Amino acid sequence: MKYLVTGAAGFIGFHVSQRLLAAGHQVVGLDNLNDYYDVRLKEARLALLAPEAGFSFIKGELADRPAMADLFAQQRFDRVVHLGAQAGVRYSLDNPHAYADANLVGHLNILEGCRQTQVGHLLYASSSSVYGLNRKTPFATSDSVDHPVSLYAATKKANELMSHSYAHLYGLPTTGLRFFTVYGPWGRPDMALFKFTKAILAGQAIDVYNQGDMRRDFTYIDDIAEAVVRLTDVIPQPNPAWTVETGSAADSSAPYRVYNIGNSQPVALTHFIGELERALGVKAQMNLLPMQPGDVLETSADTSALEAAIGFKPHTALADGLARFVAWYKDFYRV
Ligand code: NAD
């Protein structure tokens, strides 16, 4: 099948593209290669996606409406995995418009392209951040997610709402992917694991917010990519029996689904740092700092719906995943 993967030069898009190619699919990768973080890392990922295996790359901007309409009209995709976005909670405090362009206008352009060319299934990245300050754990997709505490989270929730309207109005099958703190080889330099590793190896102190009193459901990248690729075959169907009276918030009469993709094993940040120290064989020095605006205290995924849909759930143990990240980091940066 022919896939469009947006954000193919990004962390998750790269891994998903690799898996789709290995399964024999044709993949068109789109990315604007922006400099939110090191462009050389994005280029190095792209260099591993081989044209001989069926990969082609388009440097393009999600918010460019005519260019996106042309892309869909010319290429005719069977399925779209939309992972290109402006990520990051803290960056959204200072750069709100980057999120409106990439995550709102960009998402609308993807929906329109899918509708106009009758794409068979659109899967798109949402985020655990939509759960906001929810303290009832684990987070279930039937929980209310009406109170995002960052603009980033608000755009992810908006993506779900926009997708639902297209599923309802036009019968476009859409699947939202609520990822929970993804880590692993080729990971993002703006995320805690990468920053901690770099600082610890350089003998510098790491910034630890809320005195380390935070819990995150860290999820290994191979589990994420496996779940996404399996979900491409689970095409949401309309549910004519659904009614407002009987349906739960997670269901809909439209061909629309949302899944949590997380490890279901939240750990304290201090435990995470301890495991990283073990993997690196170096003790961390810590700057204990207050809570950052927009941050949440805990994330924790209920993945029962995911397991029911694909017979798989993330399971990689943190110590194993960290060891693989550290091995990649030392090799890639020659440290
Ligand atoms: P990433 O930043 O590594 O990848 C996103 C890619 O999209 C980048 O290569 C970037 O150049 C590209 N991009 C950004 N804006 C663009 C635009 N306007 N036009 C074209 N390309 C653009 O991030 P990631 O970690 O791979 O995340 C993928 C998706 O998953 C994002 O939607 C992100 O919000 C979501 N997500 C990630 C995590 C995580 O822990 N990594 C958690 C929850 C949700």
TrEMBL record:
Q: Which Pfam families match?
A: Epimerase (PF01370)
Does NAD appear among the keywords?
Answer: yes
> Keyword NADP, does the record have it?
no
Could you list this entry's UniProt keywords, alphabetically sorted: NAD
Q: Which Gene3D superfamilies match?
A: NAD(P)-binding Rossmann-like Domain (3.40.50.720)
- Coiled-coil region: none
* Occurrences of domain NAD-dependent epimerase/dehydratase (ranges): 4-233
Entries under InterPro entries matching the protein: Epimerase_deHydtase (IPR001509), NAD(P)-bd_dom_sf (IPR036291)
Name of protein? NAD-dependent epimerase
* Protein species of origin: Pseudaeromonas paramecii
